[in-house]
């Protein structure tokens, strides 16, 4: 019995691949491009830092929450069907975001887009795994990683161009048009699949516990700046989220058909692979999202200029996955490539601390290239290594797990960074404001500086001092990113160097520790078993 039965009589796998790659390009542009648009959205809709953070974090949150669920749904309902549903949802939410009259509506649109993105990524990886095999699968996943890098890389430039032409809604109109073309290609490909025969019932209890727990944790981090880190609201929300996550783990241990086979996490190698996107969130995504605000506020660059400067960080993301694939093909161990990729974040963040308040683009060249290269090297290997290391019937689950860790870590880290930026920069700004300003006016100035609206600050205030305050508040955060990236680099290296072990299988639903799968393949993508491949080609 096979996982799927893909019809090859009228199927055009290359058309399917083109549709998937286009979708994988489009989705990340909404992440990286939104960072450039934030100051313009703030100027048009609201300068509330907390509400503005949800434009980014709302997307990341729902993307993370639903990735694990979407992976299980893909295994239950079929990957192609799920991919089309995800594309339709992403299209509708992009239109809603472009037309949003208020920041609240925009936040809702972005949250819905995250759900669609989760379905798209989970179903895309799983569909590639069952449609291609052998060398073709390796090429498809290499292109998958490259496409994700292209989306992240071009996001700021596309956003800057759209803002210059039609304003901030342009980025969402682009998303809508491109994802519609992607969905059409998937339909025209003629590739079909059926649900996994042994998928069992969907774990609704686990899905609800996971979704609510992660939502509470991220909400606590995002709102901490408004509520106060030591407030009852923040601590209570955080505690509730952690408690519910413990409930989720318990459900996965004891359930008959869990969303996540906890036994997979007993593999040091898989845990090491999952730490790679966490390092990317810490060392790259935070700066990709909020460094444009520094360029806009401190260096006073226009949207177009900011987009061009950010290319120094994002172009390597497009090229580095190909480098990672070539290095691995030539026998360079995965632990060297991925452990080394995290070290690039350490050097990049440390060098950014030398960028002052004077406009000096040359000072950004080396750190930006290091950051982009580090992220691209990780993107090029993680998905294929993780998905290709498990049996085909677990492809959707592991694809969803990788996306969950990637987006969940991004949501948490970006939210924490934004809160720390607001606190750190806010403290520096307040120290430069005259005592004659009333508290409400002081809060308004802080919000304007933090969100990149320094041009709207009262002209009687010293704008130069405020720009210096932003720069001074950012430097400690850059050092924090460097230190955390170093810790993750060491952990990734140690875990990936450990050999995989096997253990007797424990029955599903048992409280005993499940068996650890063998997660140490030599090739980036493990081919499907011969019998399964033959039936899929039928």
Automatic annotation (TrEMBL):
InterPro entries: MFS (IPR011701), MFS_dom (IPR020846), MFS_trans_sf (IPR036259)
Region ranges (Disordered): 502-538
Membrane topology: Multi-pass membrane protein
One of the record's GO cellular component terms: plasma membrane
Primary localization class, coarse: membrane
GO MF, any single term: transmembrane transporter activity
Key words, A-Z: Membrane, Transmembrane, Transmembrane helix
Positions of transmembrane segments: 52-71, 83-105, 111-130, 142-165, 171-192, 204-222, 228-249, 270-291, 306-327, 334-355, 361-382, 403-427, 474-496
Compartmental location: Cell membrane
Lineage top rank: taxon: Bacteria
Residue span(s) of domain Major facilitator superfamily (MFS) profile: 16-500
Protein's UniProt name: Major Facilitator Superfamily protein
Lineage: Bacteria, Bacillati, Actinomycetota, Actinomycetes, Mycobacteriales
């Amino acid at each position: 019995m096979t996982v799927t039965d893909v019809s090859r009589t009228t199927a055009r796998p290359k058309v399917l691949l083109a549709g998937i790659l286009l979708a994988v390009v489009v989705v990340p542009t909404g992440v990286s491009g939104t960072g450039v648009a934030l100051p313009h959205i703030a100027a048009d809709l609201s300068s509330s830092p907390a509400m503005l953070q949800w434009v980014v974090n709302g997307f990341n949150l729902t993307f993370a929450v639903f990735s694990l669920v979407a992976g299980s749904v893909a295994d239950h309902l079929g990957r192609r069907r799920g991919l089309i549903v995800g594309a339709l949802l992403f299209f509708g939410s992009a239109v809603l975001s472009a037309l949003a009259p208020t920041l609240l509506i925009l936040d809702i649109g972005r949250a819905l887009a995250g759900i669609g993105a989760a379905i798209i990524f989970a179903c895309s990886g799983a569909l590639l795994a069952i449609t291609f095999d052998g060398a073709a699968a390796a090429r498809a996943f290499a292109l998958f990683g490259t496409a994700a890098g292209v989306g992240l890389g071009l996001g700021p430039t596309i956003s800057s161009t759209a803002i210059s032409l039609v304003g901030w809604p342009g980025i969402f109109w682009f998303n809508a048009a491109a994802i519609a073309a992607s969905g059409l290609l998937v339909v025209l490909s003629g590739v079909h699949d059926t649900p996994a025969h042994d998928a069992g019932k969907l774990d609704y209890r686990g899905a609800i516990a996971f979704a609510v727990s992660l939502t509470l944790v991220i909400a606590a981090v995002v709102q901490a700046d408004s509520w106060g880190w030591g407030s009852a609201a923040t601590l209570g929300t955080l505690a509730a989220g952690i408690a519910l996550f413990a409930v989720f783990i318990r459900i996965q241990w004891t359930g008959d058909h869990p969303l996540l086979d906890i036994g997979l996490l007993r593999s040091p190698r898989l845990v090491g692979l999952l730490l790679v996107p966490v390092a990317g969130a810490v060392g790259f995504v935070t700066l990709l999202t909020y460094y444009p605000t520094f360029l806009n506020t401190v260096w006073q660059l226009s949207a177009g200029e900011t987009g061009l400067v950010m290319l120094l960080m994002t172009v390597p993301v497009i090229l580095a996955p190909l480098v990672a694939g070539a290095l691995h093909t030539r026998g360079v161990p995965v632990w060297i490539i991925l452990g080394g990729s995290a070290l690039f974040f350490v050097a990049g963040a440390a060098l950014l601390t030398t960028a002052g308040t004077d406009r000096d683009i040359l000072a950004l060249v080396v750190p930006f290239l290091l950051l982009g290269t580090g992220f691209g090297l990780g993107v090029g290997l993680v998905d294929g290594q993780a998905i290709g290391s498990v049996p085909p019937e677990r492809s959707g689950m592991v694809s969803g797990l990788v996306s969950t860790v990637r987006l969940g870590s991004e949501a948490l880290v970006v939210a924490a960074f934004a809160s720390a930026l607001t606190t750190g920069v806010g403290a520096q700004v307040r120290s430069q404001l005259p005592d004659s300003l009333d508290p409400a006016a002081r809060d308004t100035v802080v919000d304007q500086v933090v969100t990149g609206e320094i041009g709207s600050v009262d002209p009687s205030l010293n704008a130069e001092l405020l720009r210096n305050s932003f720069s001074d508040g950012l430097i400690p955060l850059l050092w924090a990113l460097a230190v955390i990236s170093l810790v993750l680099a060491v952990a990734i290296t140690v875990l990936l160097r450990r050999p995989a072990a096997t253990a007797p299988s424990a029955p599903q639903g048992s409280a005993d520790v499940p068996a650890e799968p063998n997660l140490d393949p030599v090739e980036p993508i493990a081919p499907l078993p011969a019998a399964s491949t033959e039936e899929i080609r039928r």
